[in-house]
């Protein structure tokens, strides 16, 4: 039911990303790219839209050396 509403609201690629995040937990955008076989540019714009809509949340993880990286996951309070 939730998948059908999400599909009709934001589209097939967006709901595909949400399904992957729901099944795998928090992932980096490059991992989402590999699992959905969508271009990384599209994954980034899809994640931005889902964050804006409150469906996906992110956490900034500090790295020991180098820049921090972002992990994306489904916002369980809104789903």
List keywords for this structure.
79 residues
Cα-to-Cα separation, first versus last residue = 11 Å
Average pLDDT? 89
Order of helices and strands: HHHHEE
Query: Total number of helical segments?
Result: 4
Spatial order of the strands forming the largest sheet: 1-2
Uncertain stretches of 5 or more adjacent residues = none
Q: Report the helical percentage.
A: 40-55%
Structure summary, number of beta strands: 2
Global structural class: alpha+beta
Which shape, going by the Cα principal axes?
globular
Gyration radius from CA atoms, angstroms: 12 Å
Report what the structure shows.
The structure is a single chain. The chain is an alpha+beta fold. 54% of the residues lie in helices and 15% in strands. The protein is built from four helices and two strands; from the N terminus they run ααααββ. It has helices at 2-10, 12-24, 29-36, 40-52, and strands at 56-61, 69-74. The chain is globular, with a radius of gyration of 12 Å. The model has no long low-confidence stretch (mean pLDDT 89).
């Amino acid at each position: 039911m939730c998948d059908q509403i999400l599909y009709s609201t934001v589209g097939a690629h967006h709901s595909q990303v949400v399904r992957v995040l729901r099944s795998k937990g928090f992932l980096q955008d490059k991992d989402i790219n590999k699992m959905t076989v969508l271009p990384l540019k599209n994954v980034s714009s899809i994640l931005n839209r889902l964050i804006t809509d409150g469906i996906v949340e992110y956490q900034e993880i500090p790295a020991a050396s180098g820049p921090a990286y972002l992990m994306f996951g489904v916002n369980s309070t809104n789903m």
